[in-house]
Write a structure and sequence with these properties.
10 copies of one chain form a homodecamer. Chain A has a single domain (about 1-85), classed as Alpha-Beta Plaits (2-Layer Sandwich), CATH 3.30.70.1060. The first copy, chain A, has helices spanning about 15-35, 60-70; strands at about 1-10, 40-45, 50-55, 75-85. Chain A is of the alpha+beta class. In chain A, strands 2-3-1-4 form a 4-stranded antiparallel sheet. Chain A is built from 2 helices and 4 strands; from the N terminus they run βαββαβ. In chain A, about 30% of the residues are buried. The termini of chain A are close together. The interface of A and B includes residues 86 and 91 of A.
Chain lengths: ~100, ~100, ~100, ~100, ~100, ~100, ~100, ~100, ~100, ~100
């Protein structure tokens, strides 16, 4: 089941850069784990923004909620969630 | 080069349904042509809306503009375009 | 799986009242069918508006999309969909 | 008498986590008290947000105001209140 | 129980003026009935707008909903409803 | 001459509570003075908000400005001012 | 007593141009009458818009309301009203 | 050449009042200099706000930019600039 | 003197295409005349929109107003005007 | 390939002015390097704002993203990116 998730990251000007770098490393590791698993199916950078557009493939709403809330950078994020489904005009049977 | 394109389709209540069906067929044909070519890389339906979230892979801005403006349903659409690029945390070298 | 769906109904001033009454009857019948089935779990009227706040319980995103798009009054509606899940503080194991 | 109340919780990045945990415990206790009493009739988590959608059943506006203003986490919340009533199409006589 | 209700009236340029005058007369009659009863406790015109700010005193949410939906000019209105209660600093025991 | 004034009070989480309590006492005293004088004709609490809806009766714009700017809690407020006048449908000659 | 009034004029594409020209003439005549009287103290065109920024000098809110509602082009206008007063830094005693 | 400039002044609750008073004095002196010169042609206070509505008469865009950016209170301001011109209905040849 | 002007063109679905084509031809001719003169210094298409971003070089506000209001497609346009000036970091003395 | 980029710079009132001046110098140096290269094709100051309107000429989305994210003042900026292309009415073959 697919969701578009858009995340904007806001870092206060005076936030400790070392502490933030550690969070970023943790975020990257967690992201790659989910990418490998196919749960974080797509991620793209928005040009000129510290933001991404992502597509998640999850079993249900709760799984998505638990993943997002436990992201290391979640406390810095504005998050927008949109439920998606397969488009009827697609040539493919699945929701790729 | 990737762009997120979000399209909302608004059909006036009194629009001739046959005329609209023809336009929808033409839209579907054009979409599938672009999907096969890999230009319209992804399309998903937004739940509860006559809207889609799409990812286009084009050579440049002009190509995207020409594709969008010539869509059979374009006169019924609100369109939002966002430039994307590969996310640096991705496990993959390409922008999948 | 739960979703909050908010629907605003907009009827043009000059729309044929008989035609609209028929659509309203069909809408009511369809609603009650879904209410009985437990799919349309809750519905409340918003005070002073031709709008409702609803809670849907569906198997996945596609089921919700198909239900909403086929509502007889859908062409008159603005619809906002929000994915929900069980609140961790609830006394109950389910998502009531 | 029913109201939809939507609450977003905003915690400053540098807020003392222990102090916040105490407030969260107090909030949970107060919530469960009101849930048991049937006053806080429903609560759901919004996917990807530190937010909830709630339905309150109160005697009048003042009771709702007093409940909300005395929530332990109120100073961290954005709150939106919407008056609801029974939907005329419902199969049930009450406002469930 | 008090509610602030704000109403904006929008009349299409080509709406039949006689038909509208009849609706306005009906609206005025209904308003005065409710004003006499103390239900429509206050009404003020917003300067430069075909809009009013009103205070309703009703038994519950349903009563307010039924009153608003049956106003003769309701189909021309945008309506915003806000639940109010007595202010704790007031010199008076009631909610005047 | 009437104005609707809507005031939202925003208190920073780390503001000294004793200092704020003193300001609140001063605000209450000033409010009651103006309420007695009939200048602050009405005040209601907005349910679930640290906000009020007020009706002021003043001689001219300057009087209203001077009153608002000198409120002890003004530095914490967002204020919205709307000019009102008697509604032509009212049963009463004055603007009550 | 001064008010800033901002007016945007919206003419439907298919409105009868002769009828509109008559209304414009009536509007101009009424404006010049009020300009001569000093009531419509200033008017400026907003560059690139069929809009104006105006300053009215009236005795009270009602006078302003009556003037605006009876403007020949009022049914085509969006109007925003802002109460003004003399600025304390001004070199002049009056509110010029 | 005329511009409407609207300025909102936002002073942080904890800003040093003496330092701000000095800036206010400098702002007033600069304002009066420009008022005498006819450059800051009008200024009015917005009722209930720490805001003004001003009309500037400048030779070109650069002059206006340099004036605004060098105002002593500029770092505390939100500023909105709107280009104006003489209204064709005015009785006067100039843009008063 | 430079201004950024952004224009969105909205054509009603049922507007006569021949009539619109004539207006488009007139618009193009007028545009090219102004482009040759250096007044309409730049124009770019916004990708995916019937909109442009333009830079005008005019003597004063009135000239810009007169040009915009007399564009053949003006009645179909939403227009946003922003006053610009030379950027102080530019390598060049002029405002290119 | 062209993009309009709009940048608003927000400097906290209490930011160290010397540190900011160094960042501004670095920003200016980087800007001039990109201006010379033709990448930052245009830059204009928005009147009355610490903001600019810029036109970038880049090979692809990634190049633009990398340039923007590495600007010395980026952490202080709100940035809006809009993809542009040659306007079909232009007299010139290129996208000047």
């Amino acid at each position: 089941m697919l969701f578009k998730v858009e995340m904007d990251v806001n870092v206060p000007l005076d936030y400790d850069p070392e502490k933030f770098d550690e969070l970023k490393k943790a975020e990257k590791a967690r992201f790659q784990e989910l990418q490998k698993a196919g749960t974080w199916r797509h991620i793209w950078r928005v040009v000129g923004q510290y933001s991404n557009v992502s597509i998640f493939d999850v079993t249900d709403n709760s799984e998505l909620h638990d993943i997002l809330m436990s992201l290391p950078l979640y406390p810095f994020m504005d998050v927008r969630v949109t439920a998606l489904c397969r488009h009827p005009s697609s040539l493919y049977e699945d929701d790729r």
